[in-house]
């Protein structure tokens, strides 16, 4: 189990940097939030793919912000131990 401590130590370090890195995506997050909010306002109707352009821009920004230090280009939160990306949903 000593190997797991090393893995989680690296993952924990990357996760601590997560909020700072994602702060670079404020504009994209705000645009996506405005789109969702407008579609859920009284009389609005949130439907699948209504805010897809805003979501794609936000997802791209997140991927760029968190993947820049990983030499393999994996998103922040990726761990081969679980074969799961805990950062970004896959299409």
Automatic annotation (TrEMBL):
Q: Which InterPro entries match?
A: NDUFAF8 (IPR034595)
Q: Which domain of life is it from?
A: Eukaryota
**Name this polypeptide is given:** NADH dehydrogenase [ubiquinone] 1 alpha subcomplex assembly factor 8 isoform X5
State the species of origin.
Acinonyx jubatus (Cheetah)
Taxonomic lineage per UniProt? Eukaryota, Metazoa, Chordata, Craniata, Vertebrata
The protein's gene is named NDUFAF8
